[in-house]
Design a protein that fits this description.
The structure holds 2 protein chains of 2 kinds.
Chain A (H helix, E strand, L loop, with lengths): L1 H29 L6 H16 L4 H27 L2 H25 L3 H24 L7 H23 L27 H8 L1 E4 L2 E4 H23 L1 H11 L1 H6 L4 H27 L6 H16 L4 H20 L6 H15 L14
Antiparallel strand pairs in A: 1-2
Chain B lengths: L1 H19 L26 E7 L6 H20 L8 E7 L4 H12 L4 E5 L4 H14 L2 E4 L14 E3 L4 H14 L5 E7 L2 H16 L3 E8 L7 H9 L4 E5 L2 H13 L6 E3 L6 H7 L6 E5 L7 H15 L5 H20 L3 H9 L8 E3 L2 E3 L12 E6 L2 E4 L6
Parallel strand pairs in B: 1-2, 1-3, 3-4, 4-5, 6-7, 6-8, 8-9, 9-10
Antiparallel strand pairs in B: 10-13, 11-12, 13-14
The chains are: A mainly alpha, B alpha/beta.
């Protein structure tokens, strides 16, 4: 039983870790706690839901306008940076907004198979992260840290309320609707089994005392694969080197010919994409998607990042896993009502003993 | 050194955001009070009946049923020409199932002199939160859904037409032992007045009849993942799982139990009794037994006719909560008619119904009150079969 509980803890921990990585990457590079990150997690889940299940025309239009606005911001910024020509940038921005808006509108009404909408939603969330940075954080890059922090909280609230306007404050689930037949794993299930049931009820992986649903396995594999990939990207590629260089010293990085804005945008994109993956997976796993879901997950993942040592990517992964396991151990000891409290207690204890977090000391830091 | 100071700065930031970010639990803040029909201004001379319950959020289904049940009665009275020539209006208060909101709703009703009495609240914790405010204002709070034993205690202004949880919990324990053949029970309970009260009553009776409670885990209203708790249950090999809570979480427990391969019957209190439970849990809802204050199948000819009228009026099938709210509205309006159109007169009229002979004959059975304002009502058992609630083959009697 303990093994099973730990497995469940690791599953949620892996999801927390995916979100925590986003906080820590952004912090590492611009020393900002991106409080809007939880909202990106939430939008990932909502976008995937909107594209997979039948949306009302109102929701489809809301999602399309939102996606269009993101495309406009990102395209405008990219083109302006490249060409320096405002009319050209406006033209490209409008064209991109129109194209993406129409695509999302059509996709929401037509219903897209889950694997495709999953990737689309992750892409849209990455774009959201980049757009937030361009609109809200870049103009404040040289302002006091508190200004940017308050801005981040503001962005978070705006996005949360916007999601309520588009999708209402209710809980949404992949299960309530007869989801689009997915492309895979249909063979062993009886006719009429929904996509959600296929993922959670149909297939079990058994090994000794352990059992897990397909969805759990999917979460674990995806999370660990993505984290490994990210680790390799940061440590083994030229882009990763550029990211580390910007984290150490932006001025020196610029002198070395690194396009700092571009590297920061890519950092936001990667962090947001990982957050969105977590949002979709947790939305499926907990069978609940709502506008406020990002707030709690965000605070928890932020704690995981601090626990691991903020700014340190492997630290965020370890922090997420520790918090997830601590939470499930509390339940094992029949202290359900304390599970979140115990997770925070673990975090506080670690911070007292090691103020820089579990792995914080390993990071070369700015002085 | 820098890093520890940095961490401090961001912990402060975290606190800040906790302050601004809205409540971490429950529905959105703007879904709050006073939504719904009616508004603040009653037409001059109209008699206003309040109805308070969770109109938005997870429990909205129950709130809507209460509102419609009460509306049925109000419409009937108005079709007869109102009371003494005065029209009756229904004013809806949305407590979202949250005691804090319930206080605000109670204040709103208390400060509107046109309100003669209130049907509500649904959640025990909400009725309890409203109780001192209604008492202070001298306004009848008549709950059609709160079952915590203490709801009517200590106030002459709070009544209900549903049984108490000490009775319901006792019945559930006996039913589990006698009719479900259970010897070992694992318990989930909502960490609020209803969940704890019902679970305590169940445990007390279980001890007397040698029914073993092998595990008990509490949860908060915003819990969505019950898998870790379920896997601790699994090791204790229970014969059944009791859910002492509400249908929204019960549905998640049912489907996650099935997902975890824990295929034992579920037993629930009347908080699980809502079609929304079956809608959310799907096939996993099958073989769930719940207690309920009312079943149409056992309610006789009059209830069946009413069922048809309700469906015609609102296009959906009524449930027990609509019936009890209808009865509550009928009794309160009868109080206004026969007792007099003041808050005090309504209370005195209801308090005088204190014996079997004077009982009010509602759809949901005869109702009369003890000194507290509590009443005796039978507990029925329903079973989910073929995607709907049907009367369980064996009833407690």
């Amino acid at each position: 039983m303990l093994a099973q509980i730990l497995l469940l803890g690791v599953t949620m921990g892996a999801a927390y870790a995916l979100i925590a990585v986003g906080y820590t990457m952004v912090y590492g590079i611009i020393e900002l706690i991106n409080f809007a990150h939880g909202e990106i997690y939430m939008y990932g889940a909502f976008m995937c839901l909107a594209l997979t299940i039948a949306s009302t025309p109102y929701q489809a239009a809301g999602a399309a306008l939102f996606a269009g606005a993101l495309a406009w911001v990102v395209a405008f910024d990219r083109v302006l940076e490249r060409s320096g020509s405002k009319p050209l940038a406006h033209g490209c921005g409008l064209a991109a907004a129109l194209a993406l808006g129409l695509a999302v509108y059509g996709g929401c009404l037509a219903r897209i198979p889950f694997p495709v909408s999953f990737l689309l939603a992750v892409g849209l969330a990455a774009m959201l992260g980049v757009a937030i940075e361009i609109v809200a954080y870049r103009p404040l890059r040289d302002s006091p840290r508190l200004t940017a922090l308050i801005t981040a909280i503001g962005v978070s609230l705006v996005l949360q309320n916007l999601a309520q306007v588009i999708w209402s404050a209710e809980n949404h689930t992949f299960r309530k609707y007869d989801a689009h037949p997915s492309l895979f794993l249909r063979q062993n299930m009886p006719e009429g089994t929904s996509f959600w049931q296929t993922l959670t009820e149909g297939h079990y992986l058994q090994g000794g005392p352990l059992s897990m649903s397909l969805l759990q396995a999917f979460i674990l594999v995806t999370a660990f694969a993505l984290m490994l990939g990210l680790h390799l990207l940061v440590t083994r590629t030229k882009l990763g080197m550029a990211m580390r260089a910007c984290a150490q010293d932006q001025v020196a990085a610029r002198l070395m010919g690194i396009d700092v804005n571009r590297v920061i945008s890519i950092t936001f994109a990667i962090g947001s994409a990982l957050g969105a993956v977590a949002g979709i997976l947790v939305g499926l796993y907990r069978d609940e998607i709502k506008p406020t879901m990002g707030y709690q997950a965000g605070v928890f993942a932020f704690s995981a990042a601090v626990l691991g040592g903020i700014g340190n990517i492997p630290g965020a992964m370890v922090g997420g896993l520790v918090l997830g396991v601590a939470q499930s151990l509390a339940i094992y000891w029949e202290l359900s009502e304390w599970s979140t409290g115990i997770a925070y207690l673990v975090m506080i204890s670690v911070i007292i003993l090691r103020p820089a977090g579990l792995m914080g000391a390993q990071l070369p830091r700015k002085s | 050194m820098i890093s520890s100071r940095t961490v401090l700065v961001f912990l402060v930031g975290l606190l800040l955001s906790t302050g601004c970010g809205g409540p971490p639990t429950g529905p959105a803040p703007d879904a709050g009070v006073g939504g719904g029909t009616g508004g603040g201004s009653a037409a001059a001379g109209a008699i206003v009946l309040g109805v308070a319950g969770p109109m938005t959020g997870d429990l909205a289904q129950v709130g809507k049923m209460m509102e419609r049940g009460a509306k049925m009665r109000v419409d009937e009275v108005n079709a007869r020409g109102g009371i003494g020539g005065r029209k009756v209006e229904l004013e809806v208060g949305d407590d979202t199932g949250n005691p804090k909101e319930a206080s605000t709703v109670a204040q709103k009703f208390a400060s509107n002199p046109a309100v003669m009495a209130v049907v509500g609240h649904y959640n025990s914790s909400c009725s309890l939160a409203g109780k001192p405010i209604y008492k202070e204002a001298g306004l009848v709070e008549f709950s059609s859904g709160s079952t915590n034993p203490t709801v009517c205690e200590g106030s002459d202004w709070t009544f209900r037409n549903i049984y108490r949880d000490d009775f319901q919990g006792q019945m559930l324990a006996r039913y589990a032992k006698q009719h479900m053949g259970a010897a070992r029970v694992a318990v989930f309970y909502d960490n609020d007045d209803y969940g704890i009260g019902l679970k305590t009553a169940f445990e007390e009776e279980a001890k007397k009849i040698a029914l073993e409670v092998v595990a008990a885990q509490s949860y908060e209203r915003d819990t969505v993942d019950f898998r870790p708790q379920l896997s601790t249950f699994m090791a204790k090999r229970p014969d059944i799982i009791l859910v002492s809570g509400l249908f929204s979480q019960a549905a998640k427990i049912a489907s996650q139990a099935r997902e975890s391969g824990l295929a034992v019957p579920l037993l629930g209190g009347d908080g699980v009794f809502s079609d929304e439970y079956i809608k959310n849990a799907g096939a996993a809802a099958e073989n769930t037994y719940v207690s309920t204050p009312f079943l149409f199948e056992l309610g006789g000819e009059r209830a069946r006719a009413w069922h048809g009228e309700f469906k015609k009026a609102f296009g959906t099938e009524p449930d027990a909560w609509a019936v009890l709210a209808y009865d509550a509205a009928a009794l309160l309006l009868q109080g206004v008619e026969k007792g007099g159109a003041t808050r005090k007169a309504v209370r005195d009229y209801i308090a005088a119904i204190d014996s079997k002979e004077k009982a009010f004959a509602g759809l949901g059975g005869a109702t009369y009150f003890d000194k507290n304002g509590d009443c005796l009502k039978p507990v029925h058992m329903a079973l989910v079969k073929g995607g709907k609630f049907v009367p369980a083959p064996k009833q407690m009697n």
